[in-house]
Amino acid sequence: MKYERNDKKGAECFLRNLFKRNRSSFDKTELNKLLAICNESSDFLTFRLHDNSPFSISFYKTLVNPDTVHQNILASLSDQKLADLQTIKEQIPIENLLITKDLTEIQDKLMTGYVIFYEKEKSSDCLLIPAPAVEKRQVAVPETEYTVMGPKEAFVEALDTNVNLVRKRLPIPELQMKELTVGSYSKTRVKVSYVKGVADEENLNTVIQRIQEIEYDQIPDSSFIMQMITDHPHSPFPQIVDTERPDRVASALSEGKIAILVDGSPHVLLAPATFMEFFSSFEDYFYTWNIASVLRLIRLCAVTFSVLSTPTYVAILTYHYEMIPQDLLNTLVSSRSGIPFPPILEVLILELTIELLREAGARLPTKVGQTIGIVGGIVIGTAAVQAGLTSNVLIIVIALSALASFTTPIYQISYAVRLIRFPFLLFAQLLGMLGIAICLSFLFNHLLKLSSLGRPFLEPVFPLRKADLKDSLFRLPFDKQRLRPVQVRAENADRFEKQPSATTDRDIDE
Q1: Helices (H), 342-432
Q2: Which residues contact 270 (CB under 8 A, 6 or more apart)?
Q3: Which end of the chain is more exposed for a tag (fewer CB within 10 A), N or C?
Q4: 401 shares its domain with 257
Q5: Do 48 and 83 belong together in one domain?
Q6: 75 in the same domain as 48
């Protein structure tokens, strides 16, 4: 049956119905319809194997590897007498060949770089031969989670390469991968990874169920899945860790967490997560425990300062002058003399300026973005002070606040920090320090309600779990971390067997 170009409506209905059918086979007419629709694309090729051959070959030339087609497929059949598809299958030196009548499977394979053999006039069977063209970039250095010490490998967009990077670090048969397909149009491959015997079955089933329930046409990146399976999608705080480091994923899997790898995305999702994980860099484990603990406290204090510094400035200058020491008050009064704006408007102007510089620096090419950030900040800040639009004290506070917000090792949390600063400013302008306290109560109440895969988000602080404090606010030595985190509900909680305390040996010369 020939498909006419002007019958667009019928073609669209035919393609839509392919996703709804449950039959395992179709007649020859429907296969011809599919091939006719594909032939309308300029990159779809169809030709006979030989002039007198009953077999035809079809594929998308932009999806297949031409070397595989010419050297492994066509060259193997050039001098052979071919009676049927089974004979062709036996002659081609490629694995995973398949003969099928399932039209949905034929369509899916065509769109993922398969070559199909079929008889145009007789059987509706098709031989599917894998020959995909794999285009990928090389494994490079992490960009958003760069570390001075430790490995310098990052995930890429190729799913199989990412799986290889993880398996290289966990070469055990217990590392399992369950593959799912998401997206009615994109057909995105998703692998749910876990360590069997360690990961909690409830966590695993929750992740798989939520991914299977996703109904969306296109899934181009892991961030789409993260937003669709998170417990509280309307919260500005991420509840699933997004990382580009294979070493971090391997460590999380060994703890009992679930990793979600998405084809086309250089980022892997880790769940369940806690609030403190977003202030923990994997580089902390490459330093001694006391240095790592101090660095974590510095990050937490820096983020707290970033959120509260400018609201406190507005509250004090608007309502609480008596809180400022006399010497500092004289400096503030002199710096603000001649400023035509109230503190709240002055702060908003500079905060929005900083946000504009951040967005401009992020969207421009790397070298130009760095120049814009440095030069723009210096020029605008100096000009604003000289023009009398803002005080030099506030310039210092805003600069320190922006600098402190960059200390978060997980980039996702920085957006939440930037966002919640503005409600604090509004409450500080309305009620002063009382407004900041009220806003803090709302923030803590919101964080207490959050969960990740049903697990408490503020664990181990609330609920208090002393056993998990060893690797949250502080990082204790490795010999103190014998048990896996309680939050992940690992089936095997022991990392290693507890060793009996050894007696102190004498020196050799004693």
Answers
A1: 343-363, 366-386, 392-405, 411-431
A2: 240, 241, 242, 243, 248, 249, 252, 257, 258, 259, 260
A3: C
A4: no
A5: yes
A6: yes
User: Residue 71: what pLDDT?
Assistant: 86
3-state secondary structure of 271: strand
Q: Which neighbouring-strand residues pair with 271?
A: 258
CA distance 69 to 45: 12
The residues with which 269 forms a beta bridge, in sequence order, are 242, 260
- Indicate the pTM of the whole model: 0.83
Same domain, 224 and 123: no
Query: What is the C-alpha radius of gyration for the chain, rounded to an integer number of angstroms?
Result: 30
Q: Is the pLDDT of residue 431 over 60?
A: yes
Q: Amino acid identity, residue 93?
A: P
The amino acid at residue 196 is K
Q: What is the largest CA-CA distance in the chain?
A: 101
Write the pLDDT tens digit of every residue in 126-169: 899 999 887 778 888 888 888 888 888 999 999 989 999 999 99
**Residue 189 sits in the same domain as residue 62:** no
453 conformational bin, left if phi > 0, alpha if psi -120 to 50, beta if neither = left
Nearby residues of 166 by Cβ (< 8 Å), 6 or more positions away: 175, 193, 246, 249, 250, 253, 259, 261
Phi/psi at 468 (5° precision): -90, -5
Q: Which domain holds residue 393?
A: 285-456
- pLDDT tens digits, one per residue of 186-206: 889 999 999 999 999 999 999
- Cβ-in-10-Å burial (0-12, 13-18, 19+) of 465 comes to middle
Contact yes or no for 269/241 (Cβ under 8 A): yes
Question: Any bridge partners for residue 354, and if so which?
Answer: none
Confidence at 3, pLDDT banded by 50, 70, 90: very low
pLDDT of residue 308: 93
